Amino acid sequence: MNLDVLYGLLQLGFWGYLLTGFILIQVTNMAVTLYLHRDAAHRSVDLHPVLRHFFRFWIWITSGQVTREWVAVHRKHHSFSDRPGDPHSPVVFGIRKVLLEGYELYVPESRNKETQAKYGADTVNDWLERNLYSRHHNLGIVLLIVTDLVLFGVPGIIMIAAQLVAMPVLAAGIINGLGHHTGYRNYECDNAATNIVPWGVLIGGEELHNNHHAFPTSAKFSTQSWEFDIGWLYLKIFSALGLARIRRVAPHPVLAKDKCKVDLETVRAVITNRMHVLREYKKLVVLPVLRQEWAVRMPSFSLRRAARKLLTRHPALLDGQARQRLAAILQESQMLNRVHEYRDRLRQLWESRHGNNERLIAAFREWCAEAEASGIKALEEFARRLPSYSLSPVPQPA
After folding, report:
1. Structural domain boundaries of the chain?
2. How many CA atoms lie within 13 A of 310 on its CB side?
């Protein structure tokens, strides 16, 4: 018997099989992040029809999933992030459940007709989607198994297993689980999303999950100079080849040096850059005042660490015990209490929107005037800085 037949038509050798398996999984990650996530779910990029068709086919053959189901579940996740109704939040279900059984949470929600109708109605619905992908989920997986066995032989069995578990483990488990549990946060949005690592390489850039929740419609997930989003690299390459059009990226604050009066442009710029504004408030006001206060009032390192987290965390993420600890810290320091109060008032300005532009401008002016008269140097300087925010031109990606 010719044993070569056991190693498939390609006869790659150990490292060849290993490298090929890795590349195939990276193609799956590329299909998920570029097509399902950035294109279909958030409309931040327009992929060329050739790419869209390829990625749809690839996702179907490697997982049996279809566009409408994935997009609907993801959009519902954004609508209810880390609150009851979120299909796969570790805050709601526990990290162990999402990490180990994330796919089991995803499947019933993806087949929920109400979820599909509400959150996935505008997704692709052509002949292929209706008559092949949606009707024959498992046919794609059968084709994958046959193709891998023919091309790779016995080693193809391991490659098949790796391809089939890639999305359930990496997306349903790691991103939906660890991405709302472990890591660092650039932006204090109203959910627990984190950046798992600053270099989004192995999972298509999806590792930068906090950045994505802060700016959901941005085609680029990295926001700091030291972060890297490989999905953005893919998009730049495809864009250069005429295979993608980048529609939106996260705003970048523009500060006009000679601007010192709050007007409608200021208000619009602050609201547009609100995640950046809160980040700056933390950096320029909360942390300096906290360092000043803890030298006198917080000798314990553990208390300092807790205070830093509680004073910068979005109120929606604080449970009853955390609120009690925060209240105790604020009671000990009048200065921290005022800084915390001003941050919440600022955040409420863009959340309430005050009904019309005139009231909104007046509310911002009042906040700045009172902050400048607060007697807290860091807060006064921030209040004088806030009117310099200006509207940046609409980003025109190269």
Report:
1. 3-246, 255-390
2. 21
